[in-house]
Amino acid sequence: GYDLTQGIRAYCENGDFGTALSLLQANPVQQRIISGKQTMRSYHCILTNALAVGDFTSAQETFSDLIRKGYIPNKKLLGAILSTLRVQTPRQLLALEPSAATLDTIDFLLFMVDKLTARNLQIETSLYVSVLSLGNLLGGNPKRIASLIRSSRASSESTGTQLMAAGDAAEADATTEWMVWQELYRNHAASR
Questions:
Q1: What letter does residue 169 receive in the DSSP assignment?
Q2: Rounded to whole angstroms, how far apart are CA atoms 170 and 61?
Q3: Which of the two ends of the chain, N or C, has the fewest CB atoms closer than 10 A to its terminal CB?
Q4: Backbone torsion region of residue 76, taken as left when φ is above 0, otherwise alpha when ψ lies between -120 and 50, otherwise beta
């Protein structure tokens, strides 16, 4: 297990996130070549290294794999992701300049919200605040999406931050579809 995690780490340090993820994917949960803790550390390594160099595609593939395999990102992992993206604290947010990189950042954060919501997982406050703060900082389309997310949360009967879009919260049942925030953001940006 240790050797595999070190291999994943080495690939990450060399920027080969696809190979690192494929090594992790080649470890079926049933075989338990690496422990759950080592698995989460490996996801942590791939995600933070990919985001540090702006490889949002690899980060999305990795986060999707993590969720698909039934793992739940803990506060430490979410904190590391937000810190790597430099959106965890007000000071980090204020230092950001609107650019293609920050637009990719809000896109990735919306992707995370979508994935967590689709699995009916709580949206951590730090992630929610980062999405709203970055959206407001960037203005324009990101600000509109942040406003819709804030409105969606406010109108939800849930005590958590599950962000439903379609229909009245009173009519919500197991068939209610979740808003795909990233898709809404991309479609709105493309229509301008």
A1: G
A2: 34
A3: C
A4: alpha
Distance CA 28, CA 133 (A): 38
Residue 110: name the closest of 41, 60, 175 by CA. Answer: 60
Identify which of 109, 105, 103 has the alpha carbon closest to the alpha carbon of residue 140.
103
Strands (E), 53-178: none
The pLDDT tens digits of the residues spanning 99-110 come to: 778 889 999 999
Give CA–CA dist 190/175, Å, rounded: 29
Contact predicate 163/181, CB 8 Å: yes
- Lowest mean per-residue pLDDT among 58-62, 109-113, 114-118, 185-189: 185-189
d(CA 79, CA 89): 10
pTM of the predicted protein model: 0.81
**Nearest Cα residue to 84 out of 107, 54, 116, 64:** 54
In the predicted structure, residue 175 carries a pLDDT above the cut 50: no
Q: Residue 63: which of 78, 37, 43, 87 has the closest Cα?
A: 43
